[in-house]
Design brief:
- The protein has one domain: lambda repressor-like DNA-binding domains (434 Repressor (Amino-terminal Domain)).
- The chain contains five helices and no strands.
Length: 165
């Protein structure tokens, strides 16, 4: 911030406006009347050196206060950002853990499926070997024809102790 010459009417007015003071507040803060402030700003009376110096000090204090407030707000903003980042990190870690568990489950399922496929292939190979071995020995003509009896006939044969057939 460039230094304002508060000993001139224009500099005094600019400093008062920079502080955001009305004429009444400037009078209260500097211990004078609103009319005196008006006269200093119009150039009707020379600006009191004590008031000019007080205005400079207030400007410096205000600048320091704003700088401190800005740094505090930046720090607070960083705290908020840090907290949000930590929360997001926790969520992402939980999602990563879930994804890792799901991947492990799917890998195990794939291994199990592969093992089942290997078992089925072994059983199929065994059946094919048995069929090949037994192909020449099986003769359907030796099979005994079966008659199908009604449930009531089966029950009567059971009660009488007779074998159907």
């Amino acid at each position: 911030m460039p230094h304002l010459d508060t000993s001139t009417p224009a500099g005094f007015r600019a400093a008062r406006h920079r502080l955001g003071w009305s004429g009444r507040r400037a009078a209260v803060e500097l211990g004078t009347t609103q009319t005196t402030i008006s006269h200093w700003e119009t150039g009707k009376h020379p600006v009191c050196p004590r008031a000019a110096q007080a205005l400079v000090w207030r400007l410096e204090l205000e600048r320091e206060r704003k700088a401190h407030l800005a740094s505090h707000q930046r720090a607070e903003g960083l705290d908020v950002e840090l907290e949000a980042a930590q929360q997001m990190n926790a969520v992402l870690q939980a999602q990563r853990l879930d994804a890792d568990r799901e991947a492990a489950r799917l890998r195990q399922q794939l291994r199990d499926t592969q093992a089942q496929l290997d078992q089925l292939r072994a059983r199929q190979a065994n059946y094919e070997r048995l069929i090949t071995e037994l192909w020449g020995t099986w003769q359907p003509s030796h099979a005994r024809p079966r008659r199908i009896y009604s449930p009531s006939a089966q029950e009567a044969a059971r009660v009488l102790g007779v074998e159907l057939g």
